[in-house]
Amino acid sequence: MKIDVSRKLPEHLDTLVLIHEEDAKxxxxxxxxxELKQDLDSFIKAEEFTFAHGKISSFTRMHGKKRQIIxxxxxxxxxxxxxxxxxxxxxxxxxxxxxxxxxxxxxxxxFEPIVNDVILGHVLAESALLSTYKFNxxxxxxEVHEIECIHLLLSTKNTRHxxxxxxxxxSMLKPPIWLxxx
Length: 182
Prior knowledge:
alpha/beta; Leucine Aminopeptidase, subunit E, domain 1; 5 helices; disordered C terminus
């Protein structure tokens, strides 16, 4: 799984994970176009969705001839956000995206989180790699769906913290060398 930082939203999205704080409105988002804002607004009103902490909902829309999956995740109040809450929120988002068979995921934080970018990158990478891990070495046929890439939409230029967190999480998934030798 590749995890990186993107500075703009591409023309076509496979999957968009929108994480927003409580009492937020999609009109405030900068990265997305007006058509998607209207679809988000109508879905939020129809489903009476609120961005309370841990609340997740998804819908599929057609954009041209391609399918887009939109996953809405509630972060709750920004002042109460910490690394543990972010980790569980991201893990639930990745499980939902895996269940919906998403391949390329773009993550848009609709607010400026109280957690700094370095910690955010660590939490995102660790939760993505650890929550989507499946031990399927001895299966006769492997039909497990895997996420190919996660793009975090940020304006930052430093991606070193995401690379470091990915390495740390991947090393946790591999057995120690003394277990292999023994």
